């Protein structure tokens, strides 16, 4: 028995060394070299200690995250599910690591069109904790609800998210303007046009202040571009089309990083300009840009915003009698 315990300890120590090596490679951007090491460590750890041991959490999270950032969501989902279960078993669902893993697991399920599975994960997370609020997790439930076209159900969690953002980030902040805009979109989708317009006006006042500051210092950072895009969208919702077009052309002329996140932001800017052109009787150009924006934007973080753009495309097809195209995009 003592010899068996000693062998088990030696095996565990060897796996620790292998895992550390995989992390070093991963951190250095050598994911193709890190992946087989993560796989090996995870397989051998599960054989050694089972699925619920605390030592499973880190390697399953790392491997799941590697799959996630390389857009291999079908491979990421079961590994993240394993990490999430082990973390809940050892630390409870309110642990910061469980929250982080849970959100990535939910997003992977969204990409795989498992909307009810994603919703179940989001509903299991204690999003009222300080850590969850600091990460904006109160709004995470909106994503699976929106992708099931349950706009009314998304309003309450979005109101909570906005209230916290106001307290945490302040009134004149991109996050506050973004939450105001998104809540306005939900109200608009559920028929509360006056409530939506009030939120859009409030968001615009914030964004005008922020964009003016950006222009004074020639800020071209990704945050400045996000503020510009939001400003264009809000102007669009307020039917100030010429102003919206000018701002969105500026946002589209910028250089975006050539990674999933940067290209997703570029895609959202393209879709926003496409929507603007639809309303300005430039339907062919607008439609092309909306579709191209969806192709470019891939990061799961922006699924909710992408859905809003797709809904505009669906409405355009329905209004022009192209029911087959509308059905395709609704699916």
Which bin fits the share of residues in helices? Answer: over 70%
What count of helical segments does DSSP give? Answer: 17
Instruction: Give the termini distance in whole angstroms.
Output: 59 Å
Radius of gyration from the alpha-carbon trace, in angstroms: 22 Å
* Strands, total number: 0
Which spans of ≥5 residues are poorly predicted at pLDDT below 50?
Answer: 1-6
Order of helices and strands: HHHHHHHHHHHHHHHHH
* Shape label: elongated
Largest sheet: none
User: What would you call the quaternary organization?
Assistant: single chain
Structural class: mainly alpha
Beta-strand content = under 5%
- Average residue pLDDT: 88
Task: Provide a descriptive summary of the structure in words.
It is a single chain. By secondary structure, the protein is mainly alpha-helical. Helices cover 79% and strands 0% of the residues. It contains 17 helices and no strands. The longest helix is centred in the first third of the chain and has 26 residues, at 2-27. Residues 1-6 have low confidence and may be disordered.
Describe the SSE topology:
Blueprint: H1 2-27, H2 31-49, H3 55-69, H4 73-91, H5 96-111, H6 115-124, H7 130-134, H8 142-147, H9 151-169, H10 174-189, H11 193-216, H12 222-237, H13 241-252, H14 260-279, H15 283-296, H16 303-319, H17 323-330
Helix pairs in contact: 1-2, 2-3, 3-4, 4-5, 5-6, 9-10, 10-11, 10-12, 11-12, 12-13, 12-14, 13-14, 14-15, 14-16, 15-16, 16-17
Summary of the model, kept short:
The protein has 331 residues and is mainly alpha-helical. It has helices at residues 2-27, 31-49, 55-69, 73-91, 96-111, 115-124, 130-134, 142-147, 151-169, 174-189, 193-216, 222-237, 241-252, 260-279, 283-296, 303-319, 323-330.
């Amino acid at each position: 028995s003592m010899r068996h315990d000693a062998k088990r300890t030696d095996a565990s120590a060897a796996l620790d060394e292998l895992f550390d090596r995989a992390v070093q490679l991963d951190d250095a951007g050598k994911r193709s070299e890190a992946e087989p090491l993560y796989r090996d460590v995870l397989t051998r750890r599960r054989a050694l200690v089972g699925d619920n041991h605390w030592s499973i959490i880190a390697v399953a999270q790392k491997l799941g995250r590697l799959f996630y950032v390389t857009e291999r969501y079908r491979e990421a989902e079961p590994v993240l599910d394993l990490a999430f279960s082990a973390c809940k078993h050892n630390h409870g669902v309110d642990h910061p690591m469980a929250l982080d893993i849970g959100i990535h697991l939910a997003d992977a399920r969204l990409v795989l069109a498992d909307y009810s599975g994603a919703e179940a994960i989001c509903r299991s997370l204690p999003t009222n904790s300080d850590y969850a609020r600091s990460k904006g997790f109160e709004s995470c439930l909106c994503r699976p609800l929106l992708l099931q076209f349950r706009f009314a159900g998304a309003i309450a969690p979005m109101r909570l998210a906005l209230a916290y953002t106001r307290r945490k980030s302040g009134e004149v902040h991109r996050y506050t303007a973004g939450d105001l805009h998104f809540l306005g979109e939900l109200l608009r989708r559920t028929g509360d046009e006056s409530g939506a317009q009030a939120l859009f006006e409030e968001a615009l006042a914030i964004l005008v202040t922020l964009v003016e500051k950006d222009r004074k210092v020639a800020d071209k950072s990704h945050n400045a571009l996000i503020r510009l895009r939001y400003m264009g969208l809000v102007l669009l919702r307020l039917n100030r089309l010429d102003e919206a077009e000018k701002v969105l052309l500026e946002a589209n002329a910028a250089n975006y990083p050539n990674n999933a996140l940067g290209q997703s932001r570029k895609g959202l800017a393209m879709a926003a300009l496409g929507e603007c052109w639809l309303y300005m009787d430039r339907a062919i150009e607008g439609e092309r840009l909306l579709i191209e924006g969806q192709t470019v934007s891939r990061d799961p973080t922006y699924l909710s915003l992408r859905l809003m753009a797709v809904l505009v495309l669906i409405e355009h097809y329905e209004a022009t009698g192209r029911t087959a195209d509308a059905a395709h995009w609704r699916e």
